[in-house]
Specification:
The chain is mainly alpha-helical. It is 65% helix and 0% strand. The chain contains two helices and no strands. Helix 1 runs antiparallel to helix 2.
């Protein structure tokens, strides 16, 4: 029985990451505007921290997937691809 290809990242995970990043950028823009009350700023900051953590986790998972693709036998020793050509 032939091996099936490794599943691609679920589109919903990518969409969730992009949505979280977009919302985080909007929050930062609003907070930089300086028109928010202290309470609104604190709530926005708290929401921003949650969004940041969600994005960071998604990026860590993506990095792990790339490492597994680069060297499935020893992902911890996989070297990142250098796109710079000298």
């Amino acid at each position: 029985m032939p091996k099936s290809p490794a599943p691609a990242a679920p589109a919903s995970s990518i969409a969730e990451f992009e949505h979280s990043l977009d919302e985080l950028e909007q929050l930062v823009t609003r907070m930089e505007g300086g028109d928010m009350s202290l309470d609104e700023s604190l709530k926005s900051f708290e929401r921003g921290i949650g969004l940041y953590r969600h994005c960071q986790t998604a990026l860590e998972q993506a990095e792990l997937r790339v490492r597994l693709l680069l060297d499935p036998e020893a992902p911890e020793t996989a070297e990142p691809f250098d796109s710079h050509i000298d």
